[in-house]
Structures are given as structure tokens and as C-alpha cells.
Amino acid sequence: MLVILLYIFTLFFLHFLIMALNKFQIAQRIAQELKDGYYVNLGIGIPTLVANYIPADINVVLQSENGLLGMGPFPIEGEESADLINAGKQTITTLPGSSIFDSAMSFGMIRSGKINLTVLGAMEVSENGDIANWKIPGKMVKGMGGAMDLVASAKNIIVAMMHTNPAGESKLLKKCTLPLTGTNCVKKIVTDLAVIEITKEGFKLLERAPGIMIEEIIAKTNASLIVDGIIPEMDL
Amino acid sequence: MLVILLYIFTLFFLHFLIMALNKFQIAQRIAQELKDGYYVNLGIGIPTLVANYIPADINVVLQSENGLLGMGPFPIEGEESADLINAGKQTITTLPGSSIFDSAMSFGMIRSGKINLTVLGAMEVSENGDIANWKIPGKMVKGMGGAMDLVASAKNIIVAMMHTNPAGESKLLKKCTLPLTGTNCVKKIVTDLAVIEITKEGFKLLERAPGIMIEEIIAKTNASLIVDGIIPEMDL
Amino acid sequence: MTKLINNATEAIADIVDGSVLMLGGFGLCGIPENCIDALVKKGVKNLTCISNNAGVDDFGIGLMLKNKQVKKMISSYVGENAEFERQLLSGELEVELIPQGTLATRCMAAGYGMPAIYTPAGVGTEVAEGKEVRNFNGKEYLLELAFEADFAIVKAWKGDKQGNLIYKDTARNFNPLMAMAAKITIAEVEELVEDGELDPNFIHTPGVYVHRIFEGVNYEKRIEQRTVTNKK
Amino acid sequence: MTKLINNATEAIADIVDGSVLMLGGFGLCGIPENCIDALVKKGVKNLTCISNNAGVDDFGIGLMLKNKQVKKMISSYVGENAEFERQLLSGELEVELIPQGTLATRCMAAGYGMPAIYTPAGVGTEVAEGKEVRNFNGKEYLLELAFEADFAIVKAWKGDKQGNLIYKDTARNFNPLMAMAAKITIAEVEELVEDGELDPNFIHTPGVYVHRIFEGVNYEKRIEQRTVTNKK
């Protein structure tokens, strides 16, 4: 009993020590980028969670690249259908005003820039906006799915990822080391530590996670970081 | 009264003198080229008439390039709809099993060779299968419509036309003089005088209209005509 | 943010002299009657119109021609129009004739984010002049570029507030292709329905492509060639 | 001439060793279960399969992989399959990974008689290696060729004797694209209806593209990721 209490206390204490965002908070911060009337494609992982934080006062339509506009929430137990899934192969629902189409039209609307925002995860992002998120040499490669199409065409691409990999190495680099998914395409990165914009001059720090020092962000970014004026904390 | 009788008699007499086919008979002869299961696109003019002679024992599906497979007959008076027309802008009907699609898919199925036979009219056809049917220099040009797409893609193209133009000049030539609609595409020509195949060696006479002499066909064809063995009369 | 607007006048308010328009329809079938009327009333000039046909003298795009609003027509077939012929022969009107399948596919290419397509239509003809000819598997094709248009004006049978559209019978024709292809897409519909009334499985134009939608009025839906039979 | 056949065994009778197949579906959604079972029973080998995914170990194309019938997979994503991974790492299986939109559009290109398309997907990546890169309006695109396949095997919700097909919800995915794209198209449907029962306005695949059709049996329609909510 005492051990458990001590454990809980330690977790609680750690929570204050480690002010970095968890994946839900990253999703929450990204949701602030949504605007009324946006059509949005959310990738698998953290990006999917963004759907839970869409402000109630705006209307956002989610696209699933397997052929659906107007993706609704998971179905009520017992109402799930094998014929209605999202690109992550999860059972979902439609909404009033949804539309269904084939994969060519789905990527057609992506390619022609009709999707206002794409949110996806990454293994590496470089300061010129290159992204690597599909292949690690030497490991089993599962495929790029729709990621290459999305990053090659979307007007606005936000990457949701941890600032460093499990080995503690920065995922923000001067140049990606892994095989690329797309080039010069990422516009913004939201990590557990910061919101960073990709400008012509490179990474530019926009916001810090609550309690995170600029020095830490600089230390964990393996490229130049433009820090211009006062950097506000994220408003979560 | 006597004048009228004389007139009718003259017409009757002329009928025997001029054994050439009328446009209905040309359509009738072309209908013999249809096979069970064929998807067919019929151009405006004589080709449209082919629909009236489809043998009862075969199933042929008519395509209208404005976006319909399974074109039915003209509607019963009072049931015509402005929303249901063929490529000649005539009111038509659908049939059980019809399908409607947009113009891109319509020409998609034409381009990918799914239409087994295209029948269209022509102003000139050359011995290598070139066709001219859309433009006369110096005259108002109305446009090629879907003809260039059809002749560039259809697997089997039959031209329905008079053997000579109103000035009595052959419409079958060594080389077309008018601007081309397509090249090396016509497979067969059915005229008021003959059925002619286009072979690698040029025009080859297959059949003559009832009572028409081979000499007349040769005389009215402004190119070499291969006449190989006995040339049967058309069986109408 | 709503796509729903009140009428054609509002829909075309920002169409200006020199705009490039796509207009749906085949002959007089499935044409955006309300918007054409509004364009005639507005009197914008020097328009480039991409449309399979050019209407007849007193209906469809013919009304805009009569009003001398059209600088250039890009079409596959432009018969049935005496005023058109007069303007063309007098040099007032420019015409670019394009094979019908090429016209349709250049719209689709724009909507699908493909900068160009290859088609065999027109190879060996004057349509090929100045164009890249390329051989694939022994057959020659022309490179044709995707259209770039400021506005697509389409007519649908039903639509909802999300901009989802369905078309009736062969009034579909070029409408869904043009709806995908322009910077701004205006849809006029015979019947505006609530979101959820259209089955998501049977939407012809997903709403993402449509920027403005309104329920049209007083559709004439003129028939160009009334052909009927007496047979029962 | 009828397109109607009795069952999957009949449908795939002329598929032989070395055939190039397209198989519809996204994940396990909308896959031609009956034909896959028949292919496994028939045991044809050295197949090239064009399909967005490769099934799971004990369902979908995974069954053909387990049976060592597949020489090459052409897909966009091939996770969720241990046997697949084993064969790939051991060199028994060849895999060509293609961006999903490119995969879809190369099918469409075949169905639309376009020999190739231009897409920006993969520019600057290893997908671009050996491919033509072309600049249109300041943006770079890859030239990607239309697929050539011997058979397309698709699964639809309903179909009629003319071969007209409709799909249900997101089980549509690649099915209508592949249905247009091969030399021979085989469609298995959950429900075969009489000609005239399907509204001509809402056909997803016109019958002209379909060569054989049959009503399938015993659909399992397995769900890969069952995600539900308790909220009402």
C-alpha cells in the first residue's frame, strides 16, 4: 500500500518536473490550428486524436483517404460495420452530409489542393520542410500508404511528433537521414516541447510547452533555431 | 392525275435503274456487322438508323457519348425529358440495365477500347483508313464533337456514307484532301454501292449493292480497289 | 461558414470582365440557366467560356453571345447558333475547338490535380499542331494540359448545404467534371435538401469541390430535339 | 451472351500460373472473399497481385501468401502480416511499394485509356528513382504508367446481369478503379438483382467494364480494428 502511494506520488511529482506535452496535449494544440470550414486529413497516431479537440463553434470536415468526407465518431457498440472504416482500418460512422467516393477521387481532391490541412506523424523533419516517416533501412518496410501523396500536395502540412526519438536524439534536423517521404512540404511542427514553424530561413520557434525553457528546445533541436523576441507558452 | 401517275411510274422505273442502296439499306447492311454482346456507339445521321435493324436474337448495348450506356428508343409522346438526351440532342429513354455517367468516364470507356464498334459518317476516307468528317476549309466549322476521340480509340470503326459526293466525286481516295479526323482507323466502309474493307494493301471490295456492277464501283473509287474472286451481292 | 447563398446574382457577384468560366451542360441539357441569366443581366464582358456547346440563339450561352459578353469559346461543337456564326466569321469571337473527350478529361485532370493527360484523340490531325506527341506501347498520344478556370458554374438536380450534388440522367455530362476543376465552383440546384437527405453512397460531386450553392428558380429546361414515338 | 456465371470457381477458371491480378479492397474492407478462396483452392502460383494491402495472416490475400501463390505484391501498405514479412525477408516474395494515390490513379488511367499520368507523389524520394520528372507550372511531377493486368477481381454490394455494380460505404475504395482496369473483370456481389432494379443514375461501375458476375456466398466481412463508443 505504501509502495503504491509512493509510486503515485512520484508520478505526480514527475508530472511537474517533466512539463513536456503528452500526445493528447499535442493533439489539443494542433486542434487550435483548425479553422471554420476546413477540410482536414488526419494521419494515424497522434493526428487521429486531434478530432477529439475540434472547437465546438467551428465546422471542420474530416477526410479519410480510403474514400470518405465527413468522418464521424466510432460507432455505438453493435452498430459497427465492416463496410465502413477509416484509413486506419478502424470502424467509424458517417455524418449528415457525408460523401463516399473511390480512392482515385479521394487522392484527386488531395492532389488538387482541396484539403486545407493535413496532420501527420514523422520520424524526421528537416529545416527546409523535408519529411521522413515511412522507412527505416534494415527494418521491415510496411509502405508509405497515402503519405507521399498527402505531403506532395497538401497546402498546409503540420507534423505531430515527439521532439526527440526514444534514444534522445533530435527528430528536427538540418537534413533528414532517413529515406524521404516528401520534400519542402512541412509548414509547422508541434512536438511535446514546442511549436515550430518552417520558414525560408529554417526552423523558427513560435511557442514553448508550459514550463519548457528555450534552452532545452535549442539543445534538443539538431539544427539552427530562430528565436525572435519573446516566445510565449502554449495556451492549452 | 395522269401527270401524277406518270411521275410515280417514273420513280418506280428509276428505282430499278438506280440499284444503289438508300440510307436505310446502308444502315440495314451495317446492322449485320453487330454481334451478340457488343457495345456500340452510333454517330449522327445514317449510323443512328442502324439501331432500327439490330437483329432480334442478339443483345447489343448502345452507348451515347454524352454519358449513357443502354440507350432506349424515343420516348412515348408526353414522356420526353429535357434531362435525358443522346449525343444528337434527341430525347431518348433508358432501358432496364442502363447506366449513366459523366463525360470523362464516357470517353474513358471509349479510349480504353471497351466499345466494340463505332459507326460514323464521313466526307472522305483514304485507302490507309484515314477519315475526314469534321471540317471543310472555307466553311463554318462546327467542331469535331466526340469524333476524334472515337476514331482514335475504337477497336472497330465502320464508316457509313454515300460512295460519291453530290458533285459525283469519289469519297474513297488514295489520300484525304480535307483536314483529318483520325488516321489509320477505319476498318470497313458501307456505301450505297459497296462494302469495302480497308486492308494493309488498301481498299478491298467485299460486297456489291444488288445489281451494281464491279466496274461502276471501280469507276467511282478514286484509288486502287482490290477485287479478289467472285464479289457477292449484299444480302439485305 | 456556409456555402449557402440566396440566388444567382449573389453567386456570380465576383465574376468580372475577362474571367475564365466553365459552364456545365451538353447542348441545352443540364445548363446553369439561373447563373447564365444573371451573367447576362450583370453584363460582364470579355469572358472565356469553356463549355461543350455554345447554346442556341435565344437560350443558354447563346444569350451571352447575343449580348457580346464572350471573347472566346472553348468547345467541342458549336452548331445550332446563327449569332455565334456571325460573330465568328466577323472576327468578334475567338473559338478553340477541342475533341469532346479531351475537353472532359482536361476538366477531370484539373479536379484530380494532374497537370496534363495523354490522349490519342487528334493525333495526326490539326489538333496535334504544336503539341507534344509521345509513343506509349506503340501508339501515339498527345499531351493535353489541365484547364485553369476562375469559376465553374454547374447545374445539379439536388444538393445539400455541404455542397454535395447529384445530377439527373444525362444532365450529368460535364457538370461533375467542371465542378472539380475551377478555383471557385458555383452550383445551382433544382432542389436544395437538408444535410443527410442525400445518401453518402450516391453523391456525384462531393461537397469539398463546391464553394457556393443555391436553389435555382423558374427552370425552363428547353428541349433541343424533341423526338418521340407513338409505339406503346 | 451472358456475363452471369455460377460461382467463384467458374469465375477464376482461366486464371493461370503467372497471371497479373488486381484485387479490390482496402485492408479487409471490400475484398473479393469468394474469389480469393477459389484461388487458394485452385493453387495457381507465381501470381502478381496489385492490391492496396496484402490481407492478414489468415484472411484475404494473406491466405494466398500462406499458400505461397504470390510471386510479387504491388501495394501501398503491407503491414499486419507476419507470413508476408517472413517471405519478404527470406527473398521468396517480391514487393513493389507505391504511393496509395498513385496506385489508385494508375488503375484509373488504365480504365480511362490513358497510358500514363503525372503525379507529384514521390518527387524527391526513392519512389522517383528511374522515373521521368517533369515540371509543370513550377511544380515537379513523376510520370507513372497505367497498370496492365490480366484480371481484376472486385467485390460489390449489388450487381445486375448487365454487370452494373454498386458498392457499400468505404468498401468502394479501389474496387471501381480496378473494375475498369484489367483485360478481364470478375465481379462478385453480395446480392445479384434483376436488370432495372439499380437506378441508372447511381451506378458506380457501368456494366461495360464487367465481364463476369456472380452472387457470392458466406461472406465473413471481417473487421480489422473494431473501434466502438458507448456514448449515445
Brief digest:
The complex is a heterotetramer, with 2 copies of chain A (236 residues) and 2 copies of chain C (232 residues). Chain A is α/β, with parallel strands linked by helices and 236 residues long.
How is this fold's topology laid out?
The complex is a heterotetramer, with two copies of chain A (236 residues) and two copies of chain C (232 residues).
Chain A: H1 2-17, H2 23-31, E1 39-42, H3 46-49, E2 61-64, E3 68-72, E4 93-100, H4 103-111, E5 117-120, E6 124-126, E7 131-132, H5 147-153, E8 157-160, E9 172-173, E10 188-190, E11 194-199, E12 202-208, H6 214-219, E13 225-226
Chain C: H1 8-11, E1 20-23, H2 33-42, E2 47-50, H3 61-66, E3 70-75, H4 82-89, E4 94-97, H5 100-111, E5 116-119, E6 133-136, E7 139-145, E8 149-160, E9 165-166, H6 175-179, E10 182-193, E11 212-215
Parallel strand pairs in C: 1-2, 1-8, 2-3, 3-4, 8-10, 10-11
Antiparallel strand pairs in C: 5-7, 6-7, 8-9
CATH homologous group name of chain C: Glutaconate Coenzyme A-transferase
What share of residues are in beta strands of chain A?
15-25%
Structural class of chain A: alpha/beta
- Over all CA atoms, what is the radius of gyration of chain C? 18 Å
Name of the top-level CATH class of chain A: Alpha Beta
Report mean pLDDT of chain C, rounded to a whole number.
96
> What portion of residues of chain C is helical?
10-25%
Low-confidence stretches of chain C: none
The assigned structural class of chain C equals: alpha/beta
CATH topology of chain C: Glutaconate Coenzyme A-transferase
Main sheet characteristics of chain A: 10 strands, mixed
Q: What is the second-level CATH architecture of chain C?
A: 3-Layer(aba) Sandwich
Give the CATH class of chain C.
Answer: Alpha Beta
Give the strand tally of chain A.
13
- How many domains in all of chain C? 1
Uncertain segments of chain A: none
Largest interface here, residues on each chain?
A-D, 55 and 57 residues
**Principal-axis shape of chain A:** globular
Order of helices and strands of chain C: HEHEHEHEHEEEEEHEE
